[in-house]
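Notes for week 9. Today we move from apo structures to complexes. The key idea is that a small molecule is not decoration. When we ask for a structure prediction with zinc ion present, the ligand SMILES becomes part of the input, just like the chain. The input block below holds both the sequence and the ligand string. Read it once before you look at the output, and try to guess where the molecule might sit.
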Amino acid sequence: MNSVLWALADALDIVPTPPDARVAAMLTGWWSRPRLIGCAALRKDSTAPWFVCAPDPTVLCGACAAERHKTERRCMFCHAEVAPTDEVAVIHEMKNATVVVLGRTHQTCQEEK
Ligand SMILES: [Zn+2]
Ligand SMILES: [Zn+2]
């Protein structure tokens, strides 16, 4: 895993999780549509690492993604609001796409493999 991911995981106090087949499928679905770049810094620097806050496919820089993660309360799998007590934080680095996926999910959605 790259250092950007670790720095972000550390800042958000989340332990990175190994790539999950469902998240990979979600990304494949997003990438079949035009990319949505939601951050001015990324438009200027096309080599900067990409981050997304699932379930929103907008591509952000690390700083924007960290901010966005605080307010995005939807479950990345079922899209319903996640209560803090029922929350599992998720951070994935997709190997082939060089994109870091941030999100949260319900305990029950997480276990449903
Ligand atoms: Zn940004
Ligand atoms: Zn859920």
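The two ends are 23 Å apart (CA to CA).
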